[in-house]
Amino acid sequence: MKTRFKNILRFDYFTKVLVLITSIATLLLIAILAVGELSVLGIILPVVIILVAVVVYRTLAVKKVLDRIKENKVIGTVLGTRRNNGNFYISYSYDFNGENFKSKTSLLIGPLLKIKLAKMETINLVVDDLNPKKVYISDLFYK
Predict the structure, then answer these.
(1) Spatial distance between the Cα atoms of 5 and 60, rounded to a whole number of angstroms
(2) Do residues 58 and 18 touch, judged by C-beta distance below 8 A?
(3) pTM surpassing 0.85?
(4) What is the tally of helices (H) and strands (E) in the chain?
(5) Longest CA span, the chain
(6) Residue 33 contacts by C-beta under 8 Å, 6 or more apart in sequence?
(7) Overall average pLDDT of the 128-137 stretch
(8) Sheet containing 87-96: which strands, arranged edge to edge?
(9) Helices within 70-104 (DSSP H only)
(10) Residue ranges of the domains in the chain?
(11) DSSP-assigned states of every residue in 42-62
């Protein structure tokens, strides 16, 4: 199993939100440059640079965790799914080291993947052995 940066950017909720904010800030920077209003360039350019740095840092941090825990595979039981304001939530329970855990993951995904996940009864997960409450859906992050 290999972790893909593209999948982290697509399926990690916080990273995806950061990418959306960075995209909006970049478009704003381009618009400011196109108009020629260079007086606010000193404000927006550092913001864009910081946002890009945070996205890269977050992606590398998630990749490091996913590479470390890729052998901690468990199968979870889907308890339910819910849609709310464009977000998709999937709730599941899983056993790890003799303990039962329940978790909920929120995803910003397309309609086809929502339908596929809503029909699932079990789900493949990887669990962080240092923090068993931290869990990732392995089918989304690994190829």
Answers:
(1) 8
(2) yes
(3) no
(4) 5, 5
(5) 63
(6) 41
(7) 91
(8) 99-107, 87-96, 73-84, 122-127, 135-137
(9) none
(10) 5-69, 73-141
(11) HHHHHHHHHHHHHHHHHHHHH
